[in-house]
Amino acid sequence: MLKILFFMGGLFFLCFYKNLYWLVHNMYFFLVLFFMFISMNLFYFNNLTYMFGVDFISFCLILLSIWICGLMMMASMLIYEMNLNLNYFMINILILLIMLICSFSVMNLFMFYLFFESSLIPLLLLILGWGYQPERVQAGIYLLFYTLFVSLPLLLGIFYILFELNSLEIFMLEQLNFKYNLMYLILMMAFLVKLPMVFVHLWLPKAHVEAPISGSMILAAIMLKLGAYGIMRVLVLLSSLNMKYGGLVLVISLLGGIYVSLLCFLQIDLKSLIAYSSVVHMSIVLGGLITMSFWGYGGVLVLLIGHGLCSSGLFCLVNFNYERLMSRSLLINKGILSIMPGLSLWWFLLLISNMAAPPSLNLLGEIMLINSLMMWSKLNMSLLALISFFSAGYCLYLFTYSQHGKFSMLINNFFFCNSREYLLMFLHWFPLNILILKVDFLMMLF
């Protein structure tokens, strides 16, 4: 892991030169290949040092983080062309990526907490520094206070684990099994807010709407996954308490998923609609985590990767419209099919992936999660059926309202879509649909 971190440290010096923007961007994709080749054997924790180690779940999420950071730089062409503090922007993305890689690969629970909370700072700087509207300050405060309000109890819980176990190594946690009811709330709440679970999700739509395209991409694709990853790690401690309270969390999560999917039909803002659809996906992910089964954890990992690529691509498509129309309103973004059929194809491909149509990874993930939730209780069947139905409904609602109808007279320079934008969409869609051919990699989970 130190090889990776030293490599990324070397990129700092390249970030001070505007002309080397595309070199830094290409280095991220080179880093994906480099990381894959040094992590060939994933049946156990490997690349071990005193503090770092990678298992299969960490490996997949680190790869996703590096991939999305490369795509973020490709999507942020406006910042490059107008030189909106470009050097600081590149350094900010690099620091954020280092924080994420350390979060996913660190083996000490306190260090995980440290990097988990530190990753909030570069994201906050992205929203405040490169956001569009003045309301971005309010969105930043929402993001900061929702996250930090529940992080202090988590820190106290980590110190209590140290007092009980005399160790904070993640692979040692299974030797301890808490019976105190309060520990379930203390350890889970910080990750439920980050996931986010319904009723503590209000910061997410605000942050998405005010963030620049790079902020929306990393927030949807990676930052939500930190919550799921944290729950995976701490549920080892809470298995007996999970048998007692897990059913309640699961029912609240699935009912909340139905409520938020109905809320999607009321959205006018394109970014807000896609942000709420992320909450619906994460409600199913939380259900799979609560089951603590192989089907559940496997489905969670597949859906996290699939949703990361799919939601990031959808935010890019919204940004393409916003750069031309300067509006994200569904009332203005109409009739795109008649003037930009090429872009409409990408809308269609990513929205059917979002509703879990074959051959996307979302389909495999949802099938596995539905299996695990029905093994937990047959009563979940009706809730899952409603979530799947409404998810397909709001995806079709978004497609028909944005692509059909009479296009607005405000459209002036809407007719051109360059090869960079098509390549950006392809780099989201191709791994999302091709990885389903290699599903046997899930056998490496256990």
From TrEMBL:
One of its GO terms (biological process) is electron transport coupled proton transport. The chain crosses the membrane at residues 20-44, 56-79, 86-106, 112-132, 139-162, 182-204, 216-239, 245-266, 273-295, 301-322, 343-361, 381-401, 422-445. InterPro entries: NADH4_N, NADH_UbQ_OxRdtase, ND/Mrp_TM. Residues 1-102 form the NADH:ubiquinone oxidoreductase chain 4 N-terminal domain. It catalyses: a ubiquinone + NADH + 5 H(+)(in) = a ubiquinol + NAD(+) + 4 H(+)(out). It comes from Molanna truncata. GO terms for molecular function: NADH dehydrogenase (ubiquinone) activity; NADH dehydrogenase activity; ubiquinone binding. The lineage of its organism: Eukaryota, Metazoa, Ecdysozoa, Arthropoda, Hexapoda. It is a multi-pass membrane protein. This is NADH-ubiquinone oxidoreductase chain 4.
